[in-house]
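Hello,

I think I submitted the zinc ion job twice by accident. Can you confirm which output corresponds to this input? Input:
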Amino acid sequence: ANRPPAKLNLLTCQVKLNPDEKKSFDLFSHDRTYHFQAEEEAECQIWISVLQNSKEEALNDAFKGDQDRGENNIVQELTKAIVSEVKRMSGNDVCCDCEAPKPTWLSTNLGVLICIECSGIHREMGVHYSRIQSLTLDVLGTADLLLAKNVGNVGFNEIMEADLSAQGVTKPNPSSDMQTRKDYITAKYTEKKFVQRKCADAESRLHVLCEAVKTQNILSLIQVYAEGEDLMETIPLANEHVR
Ligand SMILES: [Zn+2]
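Support: Only one job matched these inputs. Its output is below.
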């Protein structure tokens, strides 16, 4: 007979990688242990990450009531106002990667909103690619929202997915499986495969970079980043280019 699916409160559960089997993980609830088997090790990591994100979100919701009475009220109000503005920005109503509605996870260093499933893969790529935080966490500082406020899903994807249709690639959708998402997100963010190269060489990239800084053009900055410019490097011969 079909039994109804078990419902668990993640707040009282622990998720752990099974030390004996790399492709499996355990979910410990107060009265029993659920053993999960993934197809692949990578998929297993993603599931763990998604469950941990969900737990974090649930934990935060649980504490929310108390935080509102704190003395940082003004900063929190400001943060909330920026968050709701960010959510209303064009394209931010759907996940930047799979277009799932109402994404609540922010990549603070890329300035885009993503859904919980895709956020697991962003986490897996590492913070040097994407720094994931929940929009529902009040610990978000206004500095964390700076890129979100100035970039957004539309502007970002106009650069990072510029060549998508020319390459005949279809984006994942909200019901895509983890592997499909992972392949796409890896190609988009680490290989930067769907970017249209606009600079002929390193020299012209450097020129565009300097112009972007001078004119405070964030999207132009993302374009040179997407074309492989390391934004953490100091600019050589800066005096020659920045006048
Ligand atoms: Zn997504």
